[in-house]
Structures are given as C-alpha cells and as structure tokens.
Amino acid sequence: MFKYSLDNKRYHTLNYHYKTKYNTKVMKISLNAGFTCPNIDGTKGYGGCIYCSKSGSGEFGGNIEDSLLEQFEKIKKVMNKKWQGKYIAYFQAHSNTYAPVNILKEKIEPFLKIKDVIGITLATRCDAISDEVLNYLIDLNKRTNLTIELGLQTIHETTSKLINRCHTLLEFENMVKILKSNNIEVVVHIINSLPFETTNMMLDTVKYINKLNIDGIKIHMLNIIKDTKLEKLYKENPFHLLTKEEYIDIVIRQLELLDEKIVIHRITADPDPKTLIEPTWLLKKFCVLNDIDKEMVKRNTYQGKFKNF
Fold first, then answer.
1. Which string of DSSP letters, residue by residue, matches 189-235?
2. CA-to-CA distance for 232 and 221, rounded, in angstroms?
3. Mean pLDDT of 262-276
4. Tell me: the pLDDT tens digits for 33-63?
5. Distance between CA atoms of 138 and 141, rounded to whole angstroms?
6. Three-state SS letters, 176-195
7. What would the CATH number be for the domain defined by 14-299?
8. Neighbour-count burial for 281-292, b at 16+ CB within 10 Å, e otherwise
9. DSSP readout, 278-298?
10. What ranges do the domains of the chain cover?
C-alpha cells in the first residue's frame, strides 16, 4: 500500500503528514484577520479574482466581527466536541502578508503564546510579500512551524488574465524559490475547471508545480458563487463545468503526476450551499472523496505513479 497515507488512501494525506510530524491530531482553525489584497485595493487591480465573493476568498474563516482570539476560541470549542489535539492558526481570508510588519506582528504573535498552537499558516499571494515582510517570515519560521499558502490557480496566462489574478507566473515561481531557499514550507493552491481550460491545461499546471520543490498542494473545483463576476460570465458566456466524473478523473491523473512527498491538503472544495450556484455536486463532499478513493483502487493507481512524465 502507498506509504504516505492513512485510512487506505492512495495519496499523501494531510492527516498522515500531521500525525507523523506531530504524533497527534492537528486541527487548522481558520481565521479572518481583515486583510485586503493587491488586486482588490487598486495596487494591482480592482474587485479581486472573478470567483471571489464580496466577503472574499477565505470566507469560511472566523467571524470578522470577533477579535482573532475570539474567532480562535469559538472554532476551537466546536472542534473539541469531536477531536482533541494540537492547533494551527490558519489566517485564511484574503492576503495575509499584505500589511506592514507591525500590523502582522500584532495579529500573529499572540498565537505563539497559546498552549497547543504548534504552527501558523498564512494564505497569501506571491506579490503580497515585501522584503520587510519576508524578513519577518524568516524570523517567524525559526520560532514556530510556519506554512505559506500561495494561490496560483493556473499556469496559463490567458486564464490568469480572464480571472483577474494580476500577477505573473514568473512572480509566483520566484517567490516559491525565495521561500524555499529560506526553509519555509510552501503549499500551492490550484483550481480545476477554470473557464475554457482543457484537461491538458489542468494537467500541465500540475506538471509545472511538480518541478518547484513545493511541500503541499490544494486542488479545488471551481465554485460559481452568487454575486461574483464569475456568475455574470457564466450566464453571459457559458463554459463547460466539469461533471463529478470528469473532475474525479482529472484529480486522479493530477495525483499520479505529483511527487509522492507532496502533501495533499485538499482535493475538493467545501462551498457554502447558501451561495453556491454550480456545480451542485460539490455539496456532497464526502461522496466526492469516497469516489476518488474507489476509482484509484479500481485503476490500481497512486500518487506519483507518473511523476516523471
């Protein structure tokens, strides 16, 4: 059986990674620190990526009306009804390095003093890490288990422009290299079924990422959410959205291309049923996960099978 997994899965699960690294259950607690983004505030663009809702990416973080510590305690209390273990403070909403260092310290440092918080994860963009912030991250990494989660979504320039990413592939690659050269863990986020992308385009994104020495990856299915620019595009110029079967096939083929050491942090989205327009099959998250597992067994395949292709 594939050696980097638990629960009979054939890919390098986050559960396995945490249990072998920390020897306990680890829970990520999603926080909303109220940051913005360079393609929201006008530095790079306006309005954010076309799939972002008004509350922005990371909308499943804590309640912005609460302080960060209140968010943490409320979510922790809910999680502790099911699990016990250690915690990672996950700054999820928008770009969580996009602020002066004194502001970052004010928001991040208190979590280093909380019992059983063993790490910090910051979701951000490659163009939202200044030299001053980078120096802080290097120092922070010496004091805790730091992970930087970089959104890429796609390597294809035409798609990137369409979805309003407002950064280049070269900027992304350079930032990955800088972070890795400073021994900072990097997780990359990609999205399948972006408008007008083919299967080969999605596979090419993973082939590219596989060469960058990253530590982890999040694979998402595109969500069309109410009141977004993407919703308007979909209605005015309909494009094909992957069916559940197509998505499962592509995810498995992407896993086959990825080095087995890369941790799979996520392989499906977890949308809000109140705002999701399409695809509705995403609402049955555990069915998608189970069907991926079953199909991998059926194909007798596993992560890394074709990593050199």
1. EEEES-TT--HHHHHHHHHHHTTTT-SEEEEEE--EETTSHHHHHHH
2. 18
3. 92
4. 989 888 888 888 777 888 887 654 444 577 8
5. 5
6. HHHHHHCCCEEEEEEEECCC
7. 3.20.20.70
8. bbeeeeebeebb
9. E-GGGG-HHHHHHHHHHHHHH
10. 14-299
Q: Average pLDDT over the chain, rounded to whole?
A: 92
Cα 2 to chain centroid distance, Å, stands at 24
Half-sphere exposure of 57 (CA within 13 A, CB side): 28
Q: List pLDDT tens digits, range 241-255.
A: 999 999 999 999 999
* CA nearest to 51, candidates 165, 128, 148, 201: 165
Global pTM reads: 0.94
Confirm if 113 and 143 have CB atoms less than 8 A apart: no
What H or E segment, with its residue span, contains residue 50? none
Q: Which amino acid is at 266?
A: R
Q: 94 is written with which tokens?
A: 């928008």
Retrieve residue 213's tokens: 């020495």
What does the alpha-carbon distance between residue 153 and residue 150 come to, in Å, rounded to a whole number?
9
Q: What are phi and psi of 63, to 5 degrees?
A: -75, 120
Structure token pair of residue 150: 């970089």
